[in-house]
Amino acid sequence: MSPFIAGSTPHGTLGQGDTFANLTSQITSYFQFLTAKAVFRATQITTAQTLTAGLQGVNLNNVLEDPYGGWVHTAGTFWWLPPAGLSGWFIVNGCVYTAAPAATNSIIPYIGTNGSASQQFAGSATSNPSVSHTAGRTVIAVMHATGGQNWIQLQAALSGANLNTSVTAGQNSHMEICFVSEW
Which fold has domain 38-181? Predict the structure, then answer.
């Protein structure tokens, strides 16, 4: 026997109203990132940076795309600040490439931001990586930022011996930011 009364139409979750309209709204929101334009892209192609023990920002020095003009790069500061009025959720992808590390190095990439509480989103840790070639470590974060207030930065945490970032073509540290939603 059917749990529905003959001729009735189920209407989704209680309190949700029209199921089709909700579904359309959800699909539009969830997949908006597929058509979202990048708001920032940069790489590190010149002057390798020496990473030391602890957490530090990665000095990206080649801006590929910054239609909102939020890149800040003065006196060792390398971050992107969304302009006032562009607040919401962002997808941030970053990768820290280094020269061949020592067997005792451990490197973790981060996406850092300031705000009411400083946040870091950790990526994959690499402990005792291969010492024979350059290595990239990736981090991806979905984060909220308030325009004009919350900067976004690619960071690296290193333990062990000092290590230079890679400036070899195709093996460059980089960060990309896409705006997803105002929610």
Answer: Jelly Rolls (2.60.120)
